C-alpha cells in the first residue's frame, strides 16, 4: 500500500471514530422516568440530611438505584421484576460489607458475586444496566468502614432505600401506563452455555483481576476499579467495548473537572442532596442518547455517592486523581477482558474445557 493509501485508510478510521464519538442516539424515554429515578436516589439523602446522618442517607440512596431496573412491561410483571432486583441489590451489598471484615477474601467474594449476579441477569435477560449496579453496591460495601455490629444497620438501610424505590416505581408505573402502552412480557429464550455461563465466568474473573491489581498497586478505596471494568465489558461486541471504553475515559476526564469544580464549592448536607438529585436526572436523561456525555456527570455523582459523608476531610484533588486512576485501570482490564470475551479462538479453547464441568442436561 502506498503512503497516500495508508493515509487515506487512517483518515477513514479516524473519521469513523469521531463519528462514533459524536453520534447522539434517538430515545423515546419520557422525562418522568429520569425525574422518578432522581427522586428514588435523592429522597434518602434529604432524610439523611434532616436527621444529620448523611452516611445513612448515602447507603439508602445506593439502594434507590434499583429503580433503574424497572422494565417497561405490564404493572404486575414490572413490580415483581423490580422487587427481585431489590433483593439482589440488598444481597450484593451485604456480601460486600461482610467481605470488608476479612480483607484477604474481598477479591474472592467480589469475583463470586460478579459471576453469580451476571449469570442470573443473563438467565433472566435483565436489560441495561444489567449486573452493573449490583457489583457497584458490592464494591462500595466492601470499602465501607465499620465493624461486624454495623452490618445489620447498613443492610437494613440499603433495603429501606430499595423499598422506597419500589414505592416510587409503583406510582410512576401507574401514571406512565396511562400515557403509553406497556411492552409485552415475552417468554424467556432457552439459556445457552456460552451466554449464561461462559461469559459470566470471564466477566467475573476480570472483575476480580481488576480488584486484585488495585490491591497490588495499593490504591486506596478502589471500589470504582471493578465497576469500570464491568461497565466496559458489557458491550455486545468488541466494537461496542471499544466505544464504551473511549466514551468512559473521555467522559471521566471531563467529569473530573466538573467534580473538582463541585468539590471546590462550600457544599453542605442540603446542597449535596440537591446536587446529587440534579446529577441523577441529567445522567438518566443523557445515558440512552450519548454514554460519553452521561459519563461526565456519572463521575461527580459516584464520587459524591461514595464520599459525600467524608467531604472536607481530605484533598479534593487527591480524591479526583484517585478516581481517574481507578477508572483507567478498570477500563484497561475491561478492554483486555472484552478482547478475550469476543475472541473465537479463546472461546473455543477455554469454553470447551469449561463445558465439561457443567452437566450437559442444563444447556444445549
TrEMBL record:
Ranges for domain Integral membrane bound transporter: 210-336
Highest rank taxon of the organism: Bacteria
Membrane topology, from the record: Multi-pass membrane protein
Keywords noted in UniProt: Membrane, Transmembrane, Transmembrane helix
Annotated TM spans: 56-72, 79-99, 105-124, 131-149, 155-175, 196-217, 249-265, 293-312, 324-346
Subcellular location: Membrane
Protein name listed in UniProt: FUSC family protein
Amino acid at each position: 500500500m502506498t503512503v497516500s493509501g495508508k493515509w487515506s485508510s487512517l483518515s477513514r478510521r479516524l473519521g469513523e471514530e469521531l463519528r462514533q464519538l459524536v453520534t447522539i442516539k434517538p430515545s423515546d424515554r419520557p422525562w418522568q422516568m429520569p425525574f422518578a429515578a432522581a427522586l428514588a436516589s435523592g429522597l434518602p439523602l434529604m432524610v439523611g440530611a434532616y436527621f444529620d446522618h448523611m452516611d445513612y442517607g448515602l447507603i439508602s440512596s445506593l439502594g434507590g438505584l434499583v429503580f433503574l431496573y424497572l422494565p417497561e412491561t405490564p404493572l404486575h410483571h414490572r413490580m415483581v421484576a423490580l422487587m427481585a432486583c431489590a433483593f439482589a441489590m440488598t444481597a450484593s451489598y451485604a456480601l460486600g460489607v461482610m467481605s470488608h471484615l476479612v480483607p484477604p477474601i474481598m477479591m474472592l467474594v467480589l469475583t463470586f458475586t460478579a459471576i453469580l449476579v451476571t449469570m442470573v441477569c443473563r438467565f433472566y435477560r435483565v436489560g441495561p444496566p444489567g449486573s452493573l449496579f449490583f457489583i457497584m453496591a458490592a464494591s462500595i460495601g466492601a470499602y465501607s468502614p465499620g465493624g461486624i455490629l454495623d452490618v445489620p444497620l447498613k443492610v437494613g438501610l440499603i433495603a429501606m432505600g430499595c423499598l422506597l424505590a419500589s414505592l416510587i416505581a409503583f406510582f410512576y408505573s401507574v401514571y406512565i401506563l396511562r400515557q403509553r402502552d406497556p411492552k409485552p412480557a415475552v417468554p424467556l429464550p432457552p439459556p445457552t452455555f456460552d451466554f449464561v455461563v461462559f461469559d459470566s465466568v470471564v466477566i467475573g474473573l476480570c472483575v476480580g483481576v481488576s480488584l486484585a491489581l488495585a490491591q497490588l498497586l495499593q490504591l486506596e478505596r478502589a471500589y470504582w476499579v471493578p465497576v469500570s471494568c464491568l461497565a466496559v465489558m458489557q458491550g455486545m461486541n468488541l466494537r461496542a467495548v471499544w466505544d464504551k471504553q473511549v466514551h468512559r475515559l473521555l467522559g471521566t476526564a471531563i467529569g473530573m473537572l466538573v467534580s473538582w469544580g463541585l468539590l471546590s464549592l462550600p457544599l453542605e448536607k442540603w446542597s449535596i442532596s440537591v446536587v446529587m438529585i440534579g446529577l441523577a436526572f441529567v445522567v438518566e436523561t443523557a445515558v440512552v442518547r450519548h454514554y460519553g456525555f452521561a459519563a461526565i456527570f456519572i463521575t461527580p455523582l459516584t464520587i459524591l455517592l461514595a464520599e459525600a459523608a467524608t467531604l472536607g476531610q481530605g484533598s479534593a484533588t487527591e480524591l479526583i486523581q484517585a478516581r481517574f486512576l481507578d477508572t483507567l485501570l478498570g477500563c484497561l482490564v475491561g478492554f483486555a477482558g472484552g478482547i478475550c470475551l469476543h475472541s473465537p479462538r479463546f472461546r473455543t479453547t477455554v469454553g470447551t474445557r469449561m463445558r465439561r464441568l457443567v452437566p450437559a442436561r442444563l444447556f444445549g
